[in-house]
Amino acid sequence: MDIAQAEDLEMEGACGGSCACSTCHVIVESPDKYDAMPEPSDDENDMLDLAFGLTETSRLGCQVKMAKEIDGVRIRLPSMTRNMQAGDFKGAKKS
Q1: Would you give the distance in Å from CA 8 to the centre of its chain?
Q2: What digits encode the pLDDT tens for the residues 47-94?
Q3: Is the pTM of this model over 0.85?
Q4: What is the SS3 assignment for the chain?
Q5: What CA–CA distances, in Å, run from 92 to 35, 55, 75, 79?
Q6: Long-range contacts: 7-10, Cβ < 8 Å, 24+?
Q7: What does the alpha-carbon distance between residue 95 and residue 32 come to, in Å, rounded to a whole number?
């Protein structure tokens, strides 16, 4: 999440990376890279259940820690995010 926000990508991260929302939901494009990541925690899975457009390779961006095993990982942002605090849907900007 920190890398995406530093690069001005449209990733909200409403909870500041504390695994308390799903606004940093990302989709890992490579199943091999997804499998190389540590398993999501129960808290992360609970938040992912609230995410818009959940997939088999969905993760919370704030919980993805860069490591040699996932070097070169490609992720995409879902078309929308769901911010339960704001009570709305926010569409991702298209570039």
Answers
A1: 15
A2: 999 998 999 999 999 999 999 999 999 999 898 776 665 555 455 554
A3: no
A4: CHHHHHCCCCCCCCCCCCCCCCCCEEEECCHHHHHHCCCCCHHHHHHHCCCCCCCCCEEEHHHCCCCHHHCCCCEECCCEEEECCCCEEEECCCC
A5: 26, 17, 14, 5
A6: 9/77, 10/77, 10/92, 10/93
A7: 27
